[in-house]
Amino acid sequence: MVDPKEMSYTAKFQASKIDGCATEFMSIDKFFGLEYWWNRKENWELSSKERKLYMNARKVYLDYDYCLDRKRYPKVPQECRSYG
Questions:
Q1: Alpha-carbon distance 72 to 5, whole Å?
Q2: How far apart are CA 38 and CA 17, in angstroms?
Q3: Cα(14)–Cα(32) distance, rounded to whole angstroms?
Q4: CB 40 within 8 A of CB 34
Q5: What residue ranges do the domains of the chain occupy?
Q6: Phi, psi of 59 (to 5 degrees)
Q7: Rounded to a whole number, what is the largest CA-CA distance in the chain?
């Protein structure tokens, strides 16, 4: 059995585009404006087609998901609580 604790991980990104905005240290208020695409209501959820593509990508490429690892993380990590 493979023990994920003993493995090193490498993430590779191809044809990726990262959107963001600069801010002063600990000044995040401006991140919540509607001028940013990620705050618009139409981007709050995946469409049916996007959800299918996402689930297929998880099935094909995801080897380990710590959000589902109750043996190693009996208490659900905070960042996994809205996971679905």
A1: 9
A2: 14
A3: 28
A4: yes
A5: 28-80
A6: -65, -40
A7: 48
Give residue 29's identity as a one-letter amino acid code: D
Alpha helices in the chain, H assignment, sequence order = 48-61
The amino acid present at 79, given as its one-letter code, is E
Amino acid letter, 3: D
- For residue 35, the model assigns a pLDDT of 84
**Closest residue by Cα to residue 14 from 61, 55, 51, 59:** 61
Please report, as a single letter, which amino acid is at residue 19. Answer: D
Q: Residue 69 CB: number of other CB atoms within 10 A?
A: 13
Q: Is the pLDDT of residue 84 over 60?
A: no
Structural tokens at position 7? 């493995």
* pLDDT single digits (tens) 2-26: 666 666 666 676 777 777 766 666 6
Distance of CA 29 to CAs 4, 24, 46, 76, Å? 37, 10, 25, 28
Higher pLDDT, 49 or 80: 49
